[in-house]
Write a structure and sequence with these properties.
The chain is an all-beta fold. It has one helix at residues 74-77, and strands at residues 22-26, 35-36, 41-42, 45-49, 81-82, 90-91, 125-128, 138-142, 153-158, 175-179, 187-195, 204-212, 222-228, 238-246, 253-258, 266-267, 274-278, 289-299, 305-314, 322-329, 334-341, 348-356, 361-367, 376-383, 390-395, 400-404, 406-408. Strand 5 and strand 6 form a beta hairpin.
């Protein structure tokens, strides 16, 4: 027996296809007693989903399974169109299709209604005040290019094992900053930005990796050394040694000198950069003496050192040449020059101020050196020469002297 208020529908027979997803009932008589136009409610109207679908079954045990006729459910074949009336969110054909092959669509829907708010997109990048990025470098993270452009933005660091944690400045802004930490080896720090996210959108996520390099190994100072006056210097001269340098570590430099044996350095200044000494006496007739000095600069910041060398050449003492007489004898046509020089092993060269007709150059003559070395008085006689008015004697030890020529009749 039927119950009061129950609705039952029985087809009169035949194929009642296609089955519907929803069942609606409308009672036209008597006229609806309640009607709410604002809410769309009308008495005598009812709609509900169909919860039960009965598919064919085997007639005998062991028969091949009867294929289920999902293709007769048009709301699965064609979908139900835009969800909630929003054209950018269509509900299409069931996928994957439960069967051998998906059937062709028998109809399509263009949808309508007001689309939902656009979704969020995220983009993340970084820039640094200097590269490579080492401790103390300011790094700026940027979500430029993300939507919505006004966020909200949320920056966080993804800390992997061994990564140093950093403090982000303005983590809820389009850009966030942090100061690169000190790392022992090349390290990649990962940061994530969440963009958007509210009652109508899902936040978008993007990540960016920032490479951090360990501090560069400190470099030693750069140093150079010099001496004044310019080489060579005279025996007994006062010499100034100077060193200059640059410390890449930013510290101050102190200088330490090493002098050859027998030379005493006197500092001039507070950091040892300048030193003075008196050049030793190199005997006349000796070869010039070369003195080698080394200076080392040490950095107060890194402790590293650098060394430079400078050489000072000291000339021997200039010997004293004295012309005791220069006499020209007119009858003999000869010039006799007497010289004194106490420097042993030297060579004296006498030069007249007249030319030799054969060579076109001044007349010259050599006295010494003697074997074994002698010192004291030297004499040279030129014969068959015209009378000069002046004679000059130079020594291989650097000394020199000039004298007028005395004329006698002999």
């Amino acid at each position: 027996l039927g119950k009061k208020g129950r609705f039952r529908f029985r087809p009169a027979g035949g194929s009642f296809l296609p089955p519907a997803r929803n069942i609606g009932v409308k009672i036209d008589y008597p006229d609806p007693a309640v009607f709410n136009q604002t809410l769309g409610i009308v008495a005598g109207r009812y709609q509900a989903p169909n919860f039960t679908f009965i598919f064919p079954e085997n007639l005998a045990v062991g028969d091949p399974p009867v294929p289920l006729n999902f293709s007769d459910l048009m709301f699965l074949v064609n979908g139900s169109g835009p969800w909630g009336g929003f054209s950018n969110q269509p509900i299409g054909q069931l996928n994957p299709w439960p069967g051998a092959g998906a059937p062709n669509l028998s109809c399509t829907s263009t949808g309508g209604g007001t689309p939902p708010p656009p979704g969020s997109t995220a983009s993340a990048s970084y820039s640094a005040a200097a590269t490579p990025i080492v401790a103390g470098t300011l790094v700026t993270l940027s979500a430029a290019g993300s939507t919505p452009t006004n966020g909200p933005f949320t920056w966080t660091q993804i800390v992997n094992a061994g990564d140093p944690a950093v403090t982000l400045g303005t983590p809820s802004a389009l850009t966030a900053t942090f100061t690169a930490p000190t790392v022992a080896s090349n390290t990649n720090l990962t940061f994530q930005v969440s963009v958007g996210g509210n009652n109508s959108t899902t936040p978008a996520i993007a990540t960016v990796t920032v490479p951090i390099a360990p501090p560069a190994a400190p470099a030693p100072p750069s140093i150079s050394a010099s001496s004044a006056p310019v080489n060579p210097v005279a025996s007994g001269a006062k010499v100034t040694l100077s060193a200059t340098g640059v410390d890449p570590a930013g510290g101050t430099l102190t200088y330490t000198w090493v002098a050859p044996q027998g030379v005493t350095l006197t500092p001039s200044g507070t950091n040892g950069a300048q030193q003075t000494f008196t050049a030793p006496t190199v005997p006349s007739g000796s070869a010039p003496s070369t003195l080698s000095f080394a200076v080392t600069a040490r950095s107060s910041a890194s402790g590293l050192t650098a060394t430079s060398n400078v050489a000072v050449t000291v000339n021997p003492i200039i010997d004293v040449v004295t012309i005791t007489s220069a006499v020209y004898r007119t009858l003999k046509g000869s010039l006799t020059v007497n010289v004194t020089d106490i420097t042993p092993g030297i060579k004296l060269t006498a030069t007249m101020n007249i030319n030799n007709p054969a060579t076109g150059k001044p007349w010259t003559g050599v006295m010494g050196p003697t074997t074994p070395p002698a010192q004291g008085n030297y004499t040279i006689i030129f014969t068959g020469v015209n009378q000069p008015t002046k004679v000059t004697v130079t020594s291989s030890a650097g000394g020199s002297a000039s004298s007028a020529v005395t004329r006698v009749r002999q």
